[in-house]
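Example record used in the benchmark description.
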Amino acid sequence: MKDFFFDLGPNLDYHFTKTDSFKKIGIGVGVGLGYDISNKLLFTTGYSFGLSNRLKNKYSGDSNNFKFNILQIGIGYKF
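Model output (structure tokens):
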């Protein structure tokens, strides 16, 4: 199992779209699993759990909460 690796840590994300409804910056916790296919190639997958409410104050209330949860899949090349 030396070819597998595990990721866990904080995430910081930025929303690039110009809008008055959402906050630009959010934080979360990411977890992931990867596999080294060879000395040069790797495969990764991960999930980020959003922790911060992304709605701006004028839209948020007791029942309104919006968080970004993100699934990531990737192939990488090491050089």
